[in-house]
Design goal:
The protein is an alpha+beta fold. The chain contains three helices and eleven strands. The longest helix is centred in the first third of the chain and has 34 residues.
Length: about 250
């Protein structure tokens, strides 16, 4: 009889251990669910940027077909360096997602005459990031709108654009065109934690603006659509400092 009782106890022991282990695992999972936070921080900061913008046609850079003779137009710049600054505010979720808003101004000087293309834009963004110690790589997308302001100042005598009659002749001492746009802006970045509240941000993007490519003063004005891709456009490199609750729990 004692042997039978001992045998039954030995058979029931593994089952009790498994049940106890399962109960402990369920308790740990429940506790983990309780401690998982949705909101994990916030941050904001300023970023400087530099980039290289380009187009396939000078008339698209200046948004003006009345720039002068074809030989003169061919000699106008189609690309150049840009620089500017801006800032962002963002909220962190589940230690892997940023949601926020940002805005920037970027200037592309041209020809050394005061000509330039100045772009201002702002919108909302989201990105996904990983935590590798103090380093956080990320990939994301920003969407919003902005305005491209194009100032053209000729580097020679005022440009004559002849019309069908002398009364239709146009003389360009300069031209200024302002065109709004919608944009999508994919980007990748790297955030390096310096302290629990300060981080270095490095980001590369390629903004894709869509809008009206020319003004009503030009012949192209009747042919363009708001779905057109606008130029000049190209990659920008951003470097800045972020402040806020940056420590990952």
């Amino acid at each position: 009889m004692k042997k039978q009782i001992l045998l039954i106890a030995l058979l029931l022991l593994p089952l009790s251990l498994i049940a106890g282990e399962q109960e402990g695992s369920d308790a740990q999972a429940q506790e983990s669910r309780k401690t998982t936070k949705v909101y994990t921080g916030f941050s904001g900061g300023m970023l400087l940027h530099g980039g290289y913008l380009f187009s396939d046609d000078p008339t698209k850079v200046f948004s003006n077909t009345g720039l002068g003779s074809s030989d003169y137009v061919k000699g106008l710049p189609k690309s150049g360096l840009c620089f500017g600054l801006g800032g962002m505010l963002r909220v962190h979720f589940i230690n892997h997602i940023h949601l926020g808003a940002e805005g920037y101004v970027s200037t592309m000087p041209l020809m050394g005459t005061g000509s330039n293309v100045r772009t201002g834009w702002g919108g909302a963004f989201t990105d996904f990031y990983a935590n590798w110690g103090k380093t956080r790589p990320m990939i994301g997308l920003s969407v919003g709108g902005g305005t491209m302001k194009r100032l053209y100042v000729p580097d020679q005598d005022p440009v004559e654009n002849p019309g069908n009659t002398p009364e239709d002749n146009t003389t360009y001492n300069s031209s200024y065109v302002k065109t709004p746009f919608f944009y999508m802006d994919p980007y990748v970045g790297l955030e390096i934690g310096l302290t629990n509240h300060i981080a270095l941000m490095i980001r590369i993007d390629y903004m894709l603006p869509f809008g009206r490519t020319s003004s009503g003063l030009t012949n192209l004005g009747n042919d363009v659509k708001w779905s057109n891709f606008m130029t000049p456009s190209g990659p920008r490199l951003y470097v800045g400092v972020m402040f806020g609750k940056l420590k990952r729990n």
